[in-house]
Each structure stands twice: as C-alpha cells, then as structure tokens.
TrEMBL record:
One CC-aspect GO term: plasma membrane
UniProt family annotation: Belongs to the binding-protein-dependent transport system permease family.
UniProt KW NADP keyword: no
Superkingdom of the organism of origin: Bacteria
Swiss-Prot/TrEMBL keywords: Cell membrane, Membrane, Transmembrane, Transmembrane helix, Transport
Name assigned to this protein: ABC transporter permease subunit
Membrane topology note: Multi-pass membrane protein
Compartment(s): Cell membrane
Naturally occurring in which organism (per UniProt): Microbispora catharanthi
C-alpha cells in the first residue's frame, strides 16, 4: 500500500492548460444576434402574447384600461362550440389543398420543361419567374382586381370578344365561387416561381447518366420521373410542399385586400376569420383563441406530413 502511494506521488501531475479563447469566437453570436432579436420581437413575443390573451377576458375596455380577468378555456369552448368556426376550418383546408396541389403540379411541369429549353428561352422564363416572385403582394393584388373589374377589366373584355356575351359587365367579386377561384389564381401565380426555381436547382444536381440508363432500359417519361427524378428529389419536394402549406394556410393579405372574407364569408379562412372577430366585434380574446387554434392545426398538419415524409425516406 505504501509503495503504491509512493509511486503515485512520484508520477508527474497532469497539467490541464486552458486553451486561450480565440479573439473571433464571439463574432458568430454577434452576427446572429440581430436576427434572433428580430425573430423574438416579431414572432415569439406576439405569439406568446396572443396565447395569454386567449385565456383572458380581453375586449375593448381591457385594451383601454389595461388589465384583464382570467377566463380559463371559455374562449376556446366558445370558438369550438360554434358551427361557423368549423365551416371556416373546412374552407381553410379546402383553400390550402386547392392551392398547394395546383402550385406543385404547375411548378413540377415547368421545372421539368426548363432543361429542355434553349439557353435564351430558359433565361427568359427564369427572369419572368424572378420578376413575378419579386412583385409586392399588394401590387399583384391590385393587378388582379383590375383584370377582373366588371366594366374596364381585361378578362371580361376578352371573353366578350371571344363571343361570351354573358360576361359583359360581369361582376366577378359578387360571386363567392368566382372570388374564391380568383384568389386561388392569384396565390398560385405568386407562389409558383419559388417552387419552380427550387425544383430546377434540384434537377441540375441529378447526374445525366441516370437518365441515360433509364432510357436504355426502355423507361418512358413517366417512369423516368417516378423512378429517377422523384425519389432523388423527394426531400426537396417535401420541403417545398411544407413551405407552401405554411404560406397558403396563413395567407391573409390577398384575401383581405380583395374580398375581406366575402362575399357572404365565402373566402373567409381562419386568419381572416380571427381578424374579423378582433376588428369588428372587438373580441380580442376570442380572436386570439382562434389564432392559437390556427397555429395548432397548422403544426398538426406539418407534423403528420413530415413524419410521413421521413418514414418514406427511411424505408
């Protein structure tokens, strides 16, 4: 025992030297700091505040005086217990499904077409896509309002010139189905460029030898897409679909600028419905509850979609 202690004491002690801290170690945090602060101020705080208000009795009086009583789940029970809320939920899912399906179909077709175009034509198409994508939302909305204007609109003028006299002075925005279709066309027109450019960038990473091997084996265009293109770009398709679901589900500016949810509530989705409750009825508590339920529904849809995508990718 004594010999062991003596040998241990005779061994040189390990000296752990602290590495000197690099001078530039704080730079990444300083560069990311403004973005994190902006994210917290513009998204995290409003979301947290909305959740708090949804559990309170918060109306115009509380907004002016300050302070609010705790209401528990009363606002959520009122929202979920009304038939109007569930009608808006169904309309929101229909709105999201219609837009996302049309966007992905058109974007996939255009992205597959781009490599087959000549250099100048491809550059022209991509430039048009970028300009469309860069157009401000309200500017694009104003253009669509003018296109479908009853007396001076280009669409009515063109349809009458083609022989459809029933569209003379036709008021598109007085019909719920027509207004819904116009809004779908507007959102698709604004969303397709991002999906096209992203998919085209992914297509350029696929080796040409894979397509040649598939054609040698006798694969047709649909088989090449199903067995070569789509499996390789499956994560990219999943990412674009998820982003489009988020953008379309939470779409507000286009709907509010054109129809304000009308006519007769035919275009009122969950974000518009929540804003109508808060603005028209001054029910900020109920509007916050609807907004929170909207976020929860969106998260549920995305979780299901992403889990299915990763499960298929792992298989």
């Amino acid at each position: 025992m004594a010999r062991t202690l003596a040998r241990t004491a005779a061994r040189p002690a390990l000296v752990i030297e602290a590495r000197p801290r690099r001078k530039g170690a704080l730079w990444p945090y300083l560069l990311v700091g403004p973005a994190v602060a902006g994210f917290a101020c513009l998204l995290v705080y409003p979301l947290a505040r909305s959740i708090v208000i949804s559990f309170q009795h918060f109306r115009l009086g509380e907004l002016i005086r300050g302070g609010a009583d705790f209401a528990g789940l009363a606002n959520y029970a009122e929202a979920l217990g009304g038939p109007e809320f569930w009608a808006v939920v169904r309309r929101t899912f229909l709105w999201t499904a219609a837009n996302v399906v049309v966007i992905m179909v058109i974007a996939t077709a255009v992205a597959l077409m781009l490599p087959r175009l000549g250099r100048r034509m491809r550059l022209a198409v991509m430039s048009g896509m970028v300009l469309t994508w860069a157009t401000p939302v309200l500017a694009a909305t104003t253009i669509f309002q003018w296109l479908f204007q009853s007396r001076l609109g280009v669409v009515n003028w063109l349809l009458v010139r083609l022989g459809f006299d029933s569209f003379r002075d036709y008021t598109w925005f007085a019909d719920g189905g027509a207004t819904f279709a116009i809004l779908v066309a507007l959102v698709v027109w604004q969303s397709v460029p991002f999906a096209v450019l992203t998919l085209y960038a992914g297509l350029t990473t696929i080796p040409g030898e894979l397509y040649e091997a598939a054609r040698i084996d006798g694969a047709g265009p649909w088989q090449v897409f199903g067995r070569v293109t789509f499996p390789i770009l499956r994560p990219l398709f999943g990412l674009i679909t998820s982003l489009e679901v988020i953008w379309v589900f939470t779409c507000f500016a286009q709907i509010w600028a054109i129809s304000k949810g009308g006519p007769g509530g035919a275009t009122a989705t969950l974000p518009v419905y929540a804003f109508q409750i808060a603005q028209s009825l001054h029910r900020y508590d109920l509007g916050s509850a609807v907004s929170t339920l909207t976020v929860l529904m969106l998260l549920a849809v995305l979780v299901v979609h992403l889990r299915r995508m990763f499960r298929e990718e792992g298989a």
